[in-house]
Structure formats: structure tokens, C-alpha cells
Amino acid sequence: MSRRIQLFCCRVEKKPRDTVLILVLCFARIHPPEFFKNKYAVDEAHYVTEISSVLASKKPAVLLTLRGVNTDSGNVSKEASFEGISQFNVNNTILHPEIAECRVIKTDMELEVLRYTNKISSEAHKEVMKAVKVGMKEYELESLFQHYCYTRGGMRHTSYTCICGSGENSSVLHYGHAGAPNDKTIEDGDLCLFDMGGEYYCYGSDITCTFPANGKFTADQRAVYEAVLKASRAVMRAVKPGVAWPDMHRLADRVHLEELTRIGILKGNVDDMVKVHLGAIFMPHGLGHLLGIDVHDVGGYPEGVARVEEPGLRSLRTARRLQQGMVLTIEPGIYFIEHLLEQALHDPAQACFINDDVLRRFRGLGGVRIEDDIAVTATGMELLTCVPRTVEEIEAFMAEGQSSAKSFHCLSSQKQ
């Protein structure tokens, strides 16, 4: 018997506050109703075969069923149904926005679980950074991440399909799917962009680390990495309740443009670059998203919050003002994506800002993304992710990992 949860709400005696939430569960083993009352701390539990008669006995004025559009994906969640539902007055529009809004602000207990998912996932990322070697397959590191999360953290699932891009694959935003299953051989000089997060009791994490496969950044890799890190930290300093999330995206975009100008890839006035949306060529995705029971959690665009229809900003998964208790990702990135670069170079409004001679040096670099999970506090934010972030920290950490691996190899050789 498959496992299934059905969710219904009913309003009794036409009093708006008299709402009863009823969970109806099917498990392979048939437990008595008392088992579920204790397990889930609910007032009543009944077998699924009794759903029609139990609800009828409550004499509800209306049944509220969960149906609505996910504003992130556009997918529609379809409400549960049962034999005999036609005898009730059913409303399938009220519940979805209310449930979505409940998920936006996290409770203290939810924050504890999210801290745990970040702790274990951060440690798993560090294991990957210590283990990576030129000549490995990308999927070997994906496997190591999943193994660590499961064996050390009890996380059977990841929050999403792991993205383990190396070299030019690091410029593919959603690499790692079935058509490109993390199967490239990692080469000397490659940057690795690994976007992976473990999931615990349905609560996710979403962390991206970018580092050199051989443990040493080249000068150009370092310049781009530090530009993205500067954008990340600028946003973290600005985050607090009341801040509009699109403004945080604009802040990251501006830092990127300033740094790309300093590097020499761009030239000219940054304000003018902003006007022609040049930042979206190098960061075509949104700055970050709500995180919780889903990795791209619901509630991004409630009624009254409109999507900003501009390049880059239109990809934001939320445009809300920040509130204490929200959990979001901060994930700025700079990518050298061939078709977007060509598009910019053929657009006179954007091409005038690009130093093509310098850009050529970077066109095979791939991309850099730095992604952390944060919780908004009363005065700022709490950083949930804990991994090496500066160039110096990454290089020292990877050198330490390689040294430990060599020591272990030597000891193993002596035993043989």
C-alpha cells in the first residue's frame, strides 16, 4: 500500500474560527487510530474509509481543500478528493494562500531543523573539497556528498538534484540533470561549482561552493571569485527586516559591474551599464529565494507583490520585503555563458561597455556562484551555512585535505 497524506479543513457551524484540520493517512501497516493521535498530537484520527461519514458528522458549513498555483514553478497543486465529497460545500481557493503564507515565516523549531540541514550539508561540502582530485568524475563528488549526508546526518534525500559542474559546465545554471548527469572528467585548471544540499524531515538546504580542482586559483579565477564574494557580503550586510528583495539583487548586480570594470572586462560608467541591464548578461538568474519545506519555497509572490519584468530581476523567485523569520538563499554569481556574451557583443547598447580583448581570457572560465542560506533576524541576519569562503580559506583548507590524503596513502603503503 502506498503512503499518502490527504489534507482537508472544514469550518463547523458557519463560525470562521471553528476550523478543524483533519489528516487522513494510509500506511502499509494498519495501526489503530490511537497510534496516530499520539504520533501526530492531533485531537482525532480515523481510517480513510471513514472520511465521508466522519466529516458529515461534523456538519461543516464548508470543506476547504488545498488547490493553487505555485508562483515559483507555475505548477498547480491539486486538492485531495474522496468518495462522497460531492455532498459537501467545497471551497478550493481559500486554503492555498493561507498555507503558503504560514510557510514563509519559520518557527523556532523549524529554524533548528534548518540549522541542522545546513550544518551537515556544510560539512559534506567540506568533505568534497578535501577529496577532489584532477581526473575524478563529477559524479564521484556528488556521491561523496550524498554519502556523507546520509551516514553522518541521517539525510536520505537531497533537496534537489546535485549540480556538480567543472570547467565550462560551471556556467550551466542547472547542470546535473539526466541529459548531463555530472559525468565530465575534472581537469587540471578547472573551477568546480558544486551546488548541493541535504534534506532532513522535508526541510532543505541549498549551498554552492566554487573552488579550483587543483587547490589553487589562477589570477583570473581569483579575480572573478572575489568579485562574487564581495557581492555576497554586501548583500549580507544590507539584509534586515523591511528591505525589498529586488533591491538586494540590484545591489549584487552593481557590485558585479564595478568589479568587472576593475578587472578590465568592462569599461565605462556603471550607472549607464545598469540602465541597459548589462548585469543580467553575467548573472542571468535571481539573487536568491525562500527556503524551507521546498528548496524554492512557496509564498514568493502573494497577492499584491508583483514580479519585476526586467532582465535578471524577472528571474527572482520572490520580490517580497524581508521579515524576521524568513529563510532565504543569497547566491550571487558571475558566469561566462557563450550565447549571452554573443548576444551582448551584438547589441550596440551593451557592446560599448565590453572590452572584448580582456573578455577573451575569461570565456572558457565557466562560472562562479557563492550560495549561503540565511535567516532574517530582528536587526539583520543569521548565517546558517559554514564553509570556507575566502580564497585564502579555500586554498588552505584544500591543501590541508590533500596533505591528509597523502599521509593516509603513505601509511596504507607501509602496511602493505
Write out key terms for the chains shown.
disordered N terminus, 416 residues, four-stranded mixed beta sheet, alpha+beta, 16% strand
Cα-based radius of gyration, to the nearest Å: 25 Å
What sort of overall outline do the alpha carbons produce when their principal axes are compared? Answer: globular
State the strand order across the main sheet: 2-1-3-6
Spell the H/E element sequence.
EEHHEEEEHHHEEEEEHHHHEEHHHEEEH
How does this structure look, described?
The chain is α+β, with helices and mostly antiparallel strands and 416 residues long. The chain contains 13 helices and 16 strands. The protein has helices spanning 33-40, 51-58, 95-104, 108-131, 138-153, 219-238, 245-263, 270-275, 279-282, 338-345, 348-351, 356-362, 391-415; strands at 4-12, 19-26, 60-65, 68-69, 76-77, 90-91, 157-158, 163-166, 191-196, 198-199, 207-212, 327-330, 333-335, 367-369, 372-376, 381-383. A hairpin with a 6-residue loop joins strand 4 (68-69) and strand 5 (76-77). It is globular and about 75 Å long. The N and C termini lie far apart (51 Å). Mean pLDDT is 92; it is low at 1-5 and 407-416.
Any chance you could write out the topology, listing elements then pairs?
Blueprint: E1 4-12, E2 19-26, H1 33-40, H2 51-58, E3 60-65, E4 68-69, E5 76-77, E6 90-91, H3 95-104, H4 108-131, H5 138-153, E7 157-158, E8 163-166, E9 191-196, E10 198-199, E11 207-212, H6 219-238, H7 245-263, H8 270-275, H9 279-282, E12 327-330, E13 333-335, H10 338-345, H11 348-351, H12 356-362, E14 367-369, E15 372-376, E16 381-383, H13 391-415
Parallel strand pairs: 3-6
Antiparallel strand pairs: 1-2, 1-3, 4-5, 7-10, 8-9, 9-11, 12-15, 13-14, 15-16
